[in-house]
Amino acid sequence: MSTPENSSEIFIDNYGRRMNYLRLAVTDRCNLRCRYCMPEEGVPHVPKENLLSWEENLRLSGIMINHGVTKIRITGGEPFVRKGLTGFLEQLKARYPDLNIGITTNAVLLERHLERLKSAGITSLNISLDSLSPEGFYTITRRDNFHDTWDAIQQAINMGFDIKINMVIQAGLNDHEILDFADLTETLPINVRYIEPMPFSGDLYEDHQSFSFKEIKKELAKKYVLIPDGTAKSGVANQFKIEGHPGKIGIINAYSRTFCATCSRMRVSALGQMRTCLYGENVLDLRELFRCGSPDSVIADAIQKVLNQRFKDGFEAENHRKEKQFESMSAIGG
Ligand code: SAM
Ligand code: SF4
Q1: From the CA of 279, which ligand is nearest?
Q2: N or C terminus of the chain: which is more exposed, having fewer CB within 10 Å?
Q3: Could you tell me the CATH superfamily of domain 7-332?
Q4: Ligand nearest to the CA of 102
Q5: Cβ(219)–Cβ(175) under 8 Å?
Q6: Which residues contact 3 (CB under 8 A, 6 or more apart)?
Q7: What residues does each domain of the chain span?
């Protein structure tokens, strides 16, 4: 991957934060209905032609990489429900071999894709799993796919993928499983990450059930001494080790928003809408720019322009929202 030599070409925001991370949603559709992410009936789907095509996603990735992006995380909706994802990843990796590509998935459809992902050079997978029992899985996701996800996790570990398990903690639903998930790190070389729930359910903000990182830590402390892991590349998670465990623990203060000062993330939805903060609103219609024939330089300038107006943190971004109800995370690209 060629890095821009002229530093003025690198995307930097108005607070001097170097924007090197893109979260790219490739679909708004999903095969699960997680309670914290969307209502039971799902969210209204957009026609396929309104999604950025794979070619547009490749072009967008290229523009981002030419301006300093070194990591692209594929998300959604559920990325594997969109046909052609694996082919897109193969093309992306072949074109930009040094690009760090991650995928966030519920893993229901993952197992059949693992061989090709491995051959393409994808090494890291973030898998969402909120319960270790089929019943708990059903209660949270409203679908009966626990074994599909669990089998894919086992297989991915056996194949040597670097696995992070993301668990969103919901009071009364799965907080009693916090220690069970930590126990997994005793035998498995995985990173279990506890995520504070955020108000992105596509439902009313008032319904938001918080469970703070302090409460998560308190629960873990009932059984384990958490050792801060200075060696971990931190990202947004506070990383810990447990003596003698090959796996690791992370806590993501997603609602408390303690990591904004170093946030390097841009998000693009499946519809090509860019936002510069998860708690903010869409700030740029990239699909429109692509489809009216804009050259890469114009698109890059438009991206830099919205980065010049970034909010300091997620609280400021939230305060400036015109629409107070948050969308489903599946529409934003989690
Ligand atoms: N379908 C894929 C999955 O579930 O991994 C990718 C998309 S999902 C929107 C991305 C991440 O957002 C998942 O880890 C999910 O748990 C998280 N998420 C969704 N809604 C959330 C919420 N309200 N609060 C916290 N995390 C949320
Ligand atoms: Fe689907 Fe992921 Fe949202 Fe669950 S969190 S409903 S798996 S998009």
Answers
A1: 1
A2: N
A3: Aldolase class I (3.20.20.70)
A4: 1
A5: yes
A6: 68
A7: 7-332
